[in-house]
Design goal:
heterodimer, A: Rossmann fold, 2 domains, 4-stranded antiparallel sheet, 10 strands, globular, B: mainly alpha, D-Maltodextrin-Binding Protein, domain 2, 3-stranded parallel sheet, 26 helices, extended
Chain lengths: ~260, ~725
């Protein structure tokens, strides 16, 4: 019997009411799983439904239909339990400018119910792990983009959750910052965290994720490992993940020497 | 991965409050508004007030100070006039010399030199006494006495006023001579003399008004500054978090949304209370210093033993206001997605609250539970009850505790409601994840929609109120013209403009369909009419029973004008103006547009009935006269309920029509009552203070029968619209 997935989306649907009285179908029955110690990439173009799906996993949005579970807790039935077991970081997630990384970690530690006596030790360990020791007491507003993103990740890790959901976390980072963050995520995967990562910068995660889920127009159009996607979607079974992605969403990749 | 236990509600709220406080105190704006503004405001206010009072007081003193008047006399009768003046001057006792100059120095001058003497300042005034002047004074007429002043060096106002007082005494002396010469008693000139009796020591010093006016102004200022103390922290707490992208990190914390909002509230409240403490400290310190600079006698002190209790009651009431201010600012700014947007939203609210606070200073008794319950005005009323006003001494301890309890309960309830609203708004997905504002032209016409939204529901109401207000000066007093103009300006024009602009679905928005299938519609409409007629009589009975002696002049005038309209016009025209036009127009607006917009798309039971309540309140306020508001509120509830239950606007129109037709029916039944309009305006129609019991019973029976007819008519299709 396979172990129960740490993250499981089951037929997630999300419809919005548009301003003109119509209905926007942002997500239409998305299902996937992420096991402990696994890193899964959620791929899709802008407007495909990635962020809406991740927000439903993080209990920021209520599903119109379907459900999702995080470490056994249902987002509909026990949203507080889900939040206890989930770390969530998005590209738009900021950090309080006037607080230092140490203060941010400590306040979120208390907010997650860590006993007051254990907070300083937990904070020190996180600062060390994220290499933020030298700027631990500097206001976050004076940190670099990479440091701020690490603070954001540390905030999501303060309660040591089994599941980690990241929405385009490398968007605001340069090449070095993005690489450092992905290395860190690799370490977390090795430590047993289940990681779901959405991005449209395919080359960054092509070799780092165990599996990929490709969404388009709110539905899952393909899922599998890099090799299986390439084999399924590229005639001849050889090529890049990007080619498989474009094939899956029904558009041809723009390659050098080729046409649109 | 050993997960910690869920934080308790208290832990979560305190963690958020602590985090927010850390951020607030590192924000310079917060510190300036919280500490520096109060510390600077009151000393400046006190200094300017004290200087102003001092200058005014010195001017009064200077004017009242006895001056020395140098009077030049010339002309043939100068000697006789001088003798008369000297006699009066020497013969008048000091106690009767009120307003007199210290000394009137008489100088004999030549007429040719007098002008030069005036211009050089040798004399202040000059009288050229013509021949026969003094003799004329003995006659019966009024003698004109020209007094010249210099054009270059005019005598001061004090000199003129005091010389006039002296000449008035001369006049009285001459009058006594005249009365004596006529052989009449001297008492003829003093027909009455006032004599105050009893204990005169208890009279309040008139200067008390100055201090109470100052205290009222300071209390309003304290209200505004308390609110501004919550201004930046509240903006920072939620709108600022959205702008910085940190709000999501809180919303995914393992605690309830109520705990998050309460933590935010605690943080803002702490800063607001700090502002209040800074304000009170500054007021106390400033008062201690500035009272020394106020002129003597201008400050009336509180009775011994009441100072501590009065100040404690004031501070407690304002602590309640601090909570209310924190909750208000949070609730108003929660929907904003940036600090700038929140400031734009909150600034008008602060201005509005300042106006509400000012109502506590209106003349009249400061106390009373009704005013104490009014947010932002009630706390000032508590303070004025405790401290006393110019016309009212400080209240007893029991009275202070009573109004304080009402004020605190009102603050607590409103704070709770506002925090619930904040939590609701914060988790509203459409608000939380809405995109940037549409950067199009403000005149960009929106796409057609099925029904108005909650905000659009209020637009024609606000426009209607504005129309009513601005048109009141233009509307003729003749009701046969005023009613259609008011209905057009306040209802039809705003509604028509909104309909044209929004392009809503008319049938759905106005519930324009029969209330039941086939002939059953007639039962529903008949029942609604019975309910309307019964409600009118019950409302009139309640109004007469409760307010038979306290109906305002405005309400009596309006009733009298309506009676005159009904008696003076053909019945069909009076019925059209009083019943038909208002029933159709107001139902289209309130139970059509407003109710439809407030109900929203989701149509949950709670929201529908909340919408019915809100539109009924708006309907009551729309009728302006306070006496009519309870009745119109109940009528609005019933009319809204009819639309909800029958899914049709027609029964509401029938009900409203019957309600407004009842005055015509009553007057027709009463027959020809002479001068009824004048009697209504005077508040004595027939001398009766209430309706007969059988009328009230019949009215209640009509309401019950009407509801039964409606229930029978709609039958089993209550939950679905009729086809």
């Amino acid at each position: 019997m396979p172990p129960e997935p740490t993250i499981e989306a089951a037929g997630l649907v999300k419809h919005y009411h548009a301003g003109d009285g119509g209905v926007v179908r942002a997500v239409n029955g998305v299902s996937f799983t992420v096991q402990a110690g696994e890193m899964v990439g959620l791929l899709g173009a802008n407007g495909a439904g990635k962020t809406t799906t991740l927000r439903m996993l993080a209990t920021l949005l209520k599903p119109t239909a379907g459900t999702a579970r995080v470490a056994g807790c249902d987002v509909r039935i026990d949203p507080v339990g889900v939040r206890q077991r989930l770390g969530y970081v998005s590209a738009t997630t900021g950090v309080p400018d006037r607080l230092s990384p140490r203060e941010i970690f400590a306040s979120f530690g208390r907010l997650h119910g860590i006993p007051p006596a254990a907070v300083p030790g937990r904070v020190a360990a996180l600062l060390d792990r994220l290499d933020l020791g030298r700027c631990a007491d500097r206001p976050a507003g004076r940190l670099s983009s990479g440091q701020r993103q690490r603070v954001s990740l540390g905030r999501a890790l303060v309660h040591d959750p089994p599941a980690l959901v990241l929405d385009e976390p490398t968007n605001a980072l340069d090449v070095v910052g993005a690489r450092d963050l992905l290395v860190l995520l690799g370490d977390l995967r090795a430590a047993g965290h289940a990681i779901l990562l959405s991005t449209h910068r395919l080359h960054e995660i092509e070799t780092r994720c165990d599996r990929f889920v490709i969404v388009h127009d709110g539905s899952v159009v393909a899922a599998g490992t890099r090799d299986s996607l390439v084999a399924e979607w590229i005639p001849g079974g050889a090529g890049e993940l990007e080619d498989a992605f474009f094939a899956a969403i029904g558009r041809q990749a723009v390659v050098s020497g080729g046409g649109a | 991965m050993n997960l910690p236990a869920h934080p308790s509600a208290r832990t979560a709220a305190l963690a958020i409050a602590r985090r927010d406080l850390l951020e607030f105190v590192r924000d310079r704006r917060t510190l300036v508004i919280t500490l520096l503004l109060p510390m600077a405001t009151y000393p400046i206010l006190a200094l300017s007030t004290a200087l102003g009072l001092r200058t005014a007081s010195q001017e009064i003193e200077a004017r009242n100070a006895p001056a020395r008047v140098r009077l030049g006399l010339s002309g043939p009768d100068s000697d006789r006039l001088a003798a008369l003046m000297e006699r009066v001057s020497e013969g008048t006792p000091r106690s009767d010399r009120t307003g007199w100059p210290a000394d009137v120095a008489l100088a004999d001058v030549r007429g040719a030199d007098a002008t030069a003497l005036l211009d050089e300042g040798g004399i202040d005034l000059w009288i050229d006494a013509r021949k026969g002047l003094v003799e004329d004074l003995k006659a019966k007429g009024t003698v004109r006495l020209p007094v010249r002043v210099s054009a270059k060096l005019p005598a001061s106002q004090a000199v003129r006023e005091q010389f006039q007082a002296f000449v008035a005494a001369v006049g009285r002396d001459v009058a006594r001579d005249r009365v004596e010469a006529a052989g009449l008693p001297a008492t003829l000139l003093e027909p009455v003399r006032v004599a105050f009796e009893g204990d005169q020591g208890a009279a309040a010093p008139p200067e008390h008004n100055v201090l109470s006016t100052l205290a009222g102004g300071v209390l309003v200022l304290l209200t505004v500054l308390t609110l501004t103390g919550a201004f930046y922290p509240a903006i920072d707490a939620i709108a600022g978090e959205k702008e910085r992208g940190t709000i999501e990190t809180l919303l995914i914390a393992p605690c309830r949304i109520d705990d998050i909002v309460f933590g935010k509230f605690l943080g803002v409240l702490a800063i607001t209370l700090a502002t209040l403490v800074a304000n009170v400290t500054s007021i106390a310190a400033t008062a201690a210093v500035s009272l020394k600079y106020l002129p003597r006698g201008i400050v009336a002190s509180l009775p011994d033993g009441t100072i501590a209790a009065s100040i404690a009651a004031t501070v407690l009431a304002f602590a309640g206001m601090a909570a209310l201010a924190a909750a208000t600012c949070l609730a108003v700014t929660t929907a904003s997605k940036s600090g700038k947007e929140a400031q734009n939203t909150l600034t008008p609210v602060i201005l509005l609250v300042s106006a509400v606070a000012g109502t506590a200073l209106l003349p009249g008794k400061p106390g009373g539970p009704l005013l104490a319950a009014v947010p932002y005005a009630g706390q000032i009323a508590v303070a004025r009850t405790a401290l006393g006003t110019g016309t009212t001494p400080p209240a007893t301890s029991a009275a202070i505790v009573g109004v304080l309890a009402v004020s605190l309960a009102s603050s607590a309830i409103l704070t709770w409601i506002l925090l619930r609203l904040t939590a609701h708004t914060l988790t509203d997905e459409d608000v939380l994840f809405r995109g940037p504002d549409v950067a199009g032209s403000p005149l960009h016409r929106p796409a057609p929609r099925s029904r108005p939204n909650g905000v659009q529901a209020f637009v024609p109401l606000v426009a209607g109120f504005a129309g009513l207000w601005y048109a009141q000066g233009l509307v003729p007093s003749d009701l046969s013209l005023a009613i259609p103009i008011q209905q057009g300006v306040a209802v039809l024009v705003p509604l028509a403009l909104m309909l044209w602009w929004q392009r809503v679905d008319l049938r759905g928005t106005f519930s324009w369909r029969p209330p039941a299938r086939g002939g059953r519609s007639a039962w529903v409409l008949l029942g609604a009419a019975l309910v309307g007629a019964g409600l009118f009589l019950l409302g009139a009975a309640a109004l007469l029973a409760v307010r038979s002696t306290g109906i305002s002049a405005e309400a009596r005038q309006l009733s009298a004008r309506l009676v005159a309209l009904i008696q003076g016009q053909p019945w069909w025209l009076a019925w059209t103006l009083v019943a038909a036009v208002p029933a159709v127009c107001e139902e289209l607006l309130f139970r059509g547009w407003v109710l439809s917009g407030l109900r929203g798309r989701r149509n949950s039971t709670r929201r529908v009935w909340a919408a019915v309540g809100v539109q009924a309140a708006a309907f009551a306020v729309f009728h302006l006269l306070p006496e009519r508001m309870p009745q119109t509120f109940v009528l609005g509830l019933v009319l809204g309920g009819l639309v909800v239950v029958t899914h049709s606007l027609l029964p509401a129109i029938a009900c409203h029509l019957a309600h407004n037709s009842m005055p015509l029916v009553v007057l027709w039944l009463a027959g020809d009552v002479p001068d009824l309009a004048a009697a209504v305006e005077a508040g004595t129609p027939g001398g009766s203070a209430g309706l007969p019991g059988w009328v009230v019973a019949a009215a209640a029976g009509a309401v019950v029968a009407g509801l039964a007819a409606i229930a029978a008519g709609i039958g089993r299709i209550t939950d679905e619209p009729a086809a």
